[in-house]
Amino acid sequence: MENVVVADKTSSPSDDDITPPPPVSFLPPPPPPPKKARGGWRSVKYILGNESFEKLASMGLIANLTVYLQTKYNMDGIQLVNVFNIWSGSTNLTPLLGAFLSDAYLGRFRTLLFGSVSSFLGMVVLALTAGMPKLRPLDCPGVSSCQKPQDWQLGVLYSGLGLIAVGAGGVRPCNIAFGADQFDTGTEKGRAQLESFFNWWYFSFTVSLVIALTVVVYVQTNVSWVIGYAIPAACLFSSFVIFLIGKHTYIITKPHGTVFIDIAKVVVGACKKRAVSLESSSGYSLYDPPLTESDQHVEKLAHTDVFKFFDKAALITDFKRVG
Hints:
Blueprint: H1 41-62, H2 65-72, H3 77-106, H4 108-131, H5 151-171, H6 175-180, H7 188-223, H8 225-245, H9 259-272, E1 285-286, E2 315-316, H10 319-322
Antiparallel strand pairs: 1-2
């Protein structure tokens, strides 16, 4: 009997069961989505938020600090005036140092960041002095002879005020300048946006000032000093957080030197060449540096005879060094 081999129909795939290979695409992959440009109103909104909360906190402190020192630290007379005036004067002097460090070494972003942190820590210290009775002398309403604050209690108070003064030195000189860095002033659109930014900056400053002098001051004097100082501390924390959230949108410029150093160089150079006469210096010429590509939209000031003595700083007396 012959062996008949029967083919198993189930073992051989049919044409319908064969999966066709995927089509081969010779087109290039789609390009990634373009990144959003830094700067402009995309970043300014964070800067305005940082400025608004910082001003609300600082103005709320300044408006009622003397009342706090008088009622909670039993200060009066010369001590009260000295503490307030020294602190107020310090907050107006530290911005000069902050501006110098920002232009020469740190840059505006880092200076703003350090200033915001310092202001927040100082406000937290003041809120703690209001919430912890051990950090201040005993209250004595209606008593003529009140307990004076101890040295360590004054040390805690002064440390908080000092941190706030340092923070003001970092925030005040850099906030509006950092906002101006976000616009390209070489174009007509950028200059128009910069003018609009200044308007919004002063508007937010005015609104913050009104809220600080009404709502915050009312809470401090009529509700609670703890809540009244916790509100500015929360505002400074919000200011810091908002500023960090917008970091990926900022145009961060590198430190480019400070005008004070340039002025000092001019004075020193003019003094070194004081023996050289401008009228008889026929063999010399004034150094006139060309504008860079980024400064092509800047118009040079016309040369005048005002403060002509300082022209000696620009006299080229060593052509080898210049060439």
